[in-house]
Amino acid sequence: MSSTQYLDTELLAGLSLGFGTPSISSSLKPFDGVIPNVIALPYGRCPPFHIRAPSWRNLLKLMARLSGTRLEPTMEALAVVKTEMKLRIVVSFVKVHHASSDWHTVLYMTIDHPVPANAPTGWKYRNGDTNTLPFSYTLSQLPAFLRDGADSPLSKFYTIPASNEAPFPVLPISFPNLATYLASALENARDAIRDSSSGVRRLAQYVDQFYPNDRAALDDAPERVGMRRRLKNLVGIGSKPQRDRNAEVYELVTPFVADDYGR
């Protein structure tokens, strides 16, 4: 198990993780459990694994510091699937209650599952729509916050699409590398902020709308060539000319510690 004693107290406030539906409360109770070194994801019929945090930034900062934790398929999944298994991620933003202005971030994760050729409306799972849950999420009962659609008054969700810059992550993957992937997904959404023809920009819109104080300029934050190289190696993108963008990613996902796979 990963020890939480070296993590900042603020990163453990309001944290929950597990399979099924997380509880949402305005009271940010400190996480009193243990974070496992290995989180094993089943293949097929199983509720998605979730991680809940008070904000997007808190979620990424926590994951970046959990260098000893990784996601990987279960032994049963490895026995069934002989090709590489990829992660399908849905980001959910949930309002604490109807009269509150606070929104929590919930990350849902499953192993990607091919869409059967004869599946009704199978096309909608293949077009990269950020408003449509991946097919793997239809194989078991949905968590409550995902049943109300992508844009309800009390909850929103965003399915991270694959792109040339950020393909679906391949399992196993460490939490710091997953944080880097999520940071790149937000960066892609910011790059598409003026593109109204797709829903890619929705992630940036939600993060900026629900957590406006987290968008502070970071022009004076240091940059590291190693950070940009790591981001490029993981998701295939290089350095960006915007200094504040580099600094934002740097602040979220450093420091890094190499995981068991040397990544």
DSSP helical segment count: 7
Content of β-strand: 15-25%
Number of extended strands: 8
Which residue ranges are poorly predicted, with pLDDT under 50 across at least 5 consecutive positions? 217-228, 230-243, 253-263
Quote the distance from N terminus to C terminus: 20 Å
Question: What does the largest sheet look like?
Answer: 5 strands, antiparallel
- Principal-axes geometry comes out as globular
How confident overall, as mean pLDDT? Answer: 82
Structural class: alpha+beta
N-to-C SSE string, H for helix and E for strand: HEEEHEHEEEEHHHH
**What is the helix fraction of residues, given as a range?**
25-40%
Please state the CA-atom Rg, rounded to the nearest Å.
18 Å
The order of strands across the largest sheet is 1-3-6-5-7
Number of domains: 1
Description:
This protein is an alpha+beta fold and 263 residues long. The chain has one domain. The chain has helices at 9-12, 56-65, 75-80, 175-191, 202-210, 225-235, 243-253; strands at residues 16-19, 38-41, 49-53, 70-73, 87-95, 103-111, 155-159, 173-174. Strands 1-3-6-5-7 form a 5-stranded antiparallel β-sheet. It has a 3-stranded mixed β-sheet with strand order 2-4-8.
